[in-house]
Amino acid sequence: MDNPVISPEKRTEIDSFLAKKHPGTICVANYKGGVGKTTIVCLLGYYLAEMTGKKVLLFDIDPQCSLSLAVGFDPEEVSKTELTIYNLVKPSKWTKIKKTNFDNYVFPVPDSLSPKNLYIVRGAFEVENLDIEIAKSLVEDKRRVDELFLYCKQMLDAFEQYDYILVDCPPNKMFLTQAMLRACSYYLPVTIPDAISIYGMPRLLRWVTQIPSGERPKLLGYVLNAINRAGGAIGGKVVSQQSAEYRLEKSIKSALEKVERDVIGSNPLVGTIPRLDAIARFLSEQNKFTRFYFNQRTSGQPTIDACLRVLTQEVLNRIGAYVAKS
């Protein structure tokens, strides 16, 4: 008996499922805004580049372009070019994977004191209209969202000369956010440990579980931002933040797959970032990598630099553990 013919639509879905992922891609996400996703992408990018000496690429897909601005691009100039994330992923690009010169979209980080191995694909304010364009293409041109999912996987994998790629996502479920989350090998949620902010995490976890298991990103753990530190240990927290984190960890542990439990164990926390003005100063200054204030101690607390080195090393350790189990 002859095998049934596979329709083009089904073929696209299969190709999307089977497409290879870039092994160093990390999607930084949360369904809640204002929790520090851009801060973590920026800081983790700097420290990964410095600590590993490998090439690190930042992806700014948030229509606010906060990451592009944080690394030194002028607000008036940030998207005054066609070489932005918007033009890289709009529907007309999905079938032009072999014709696209992806290197043209990569820019060195403008900060003159940043690691020379740190790069960025710039954001664009026009990304806020991208969901409308994608939806129109799906209806009017009878395109399939699997085409976008496949394209984003192939696009990230095309940046194979970069060892790590960090994607800064907006706090929504727009098509591009879904596609980049599916396209990445790992995801790293960020939250602030308070009663309101932690509610974004269960929604994100449920969202991820809806992705077919064969292409679901692996959880690296979560980052706690804006910690009001108490006590002497890295990551010390005031009582209200401890209570919020307890509820957060309970929801995360109940959603882990077996391999995630094996790697993360009983501690899904990757690292903490303190609530200090020095971080805001770092993000707003042009000569960021001096990090003068990152090495100052406050009341015997660990320095910002120490916290970020612990965070970065743990991310590397968990990626290594996943690779060992694959």
Q: Could you characterize what this model shows?
A:
With 326 residues, the chain is α/β, with parallel strands linked by helices. The chain has a single domain (20-325), classed as 3-Layer(aba) Sandwich (Rossmann fold), CATH 3.40.50. It is built from twelve helices and nine strands. Strands 1, 2, 3, 4, 5, 6, 7, 8 and 9 form a nine-stranded mixed beta sheet that branches. Helix 8 (200-209) links the parallel strand 6 (186-191) and strand 7. Helix 2 (37-52) packs across helix 12. The longest helix has 22 residues, at 304-325. Mean pLDDT is 86; it is low at 230-235.
Mean of residue pLDDT values: 86
* The CATH class: Alpha Beta
**CATH domain fold name:** Rossmann fold
Structural class label: alpha/beta
What is the CATH homologous superfamily assignment?
A: P-loop containing nucleotide triphosphate hydrolases
User: What order do the SSEs take from the amino end to the carboxyl end, as H and E?
Assistant: HEHEHHEEHHEHEHEEHHEHH
Principal-axis shape? globular
Give the biggest beta sheet.
9 strands, mixed
Low-confidence stretches: 230-235
In total, how many beta strands? 9
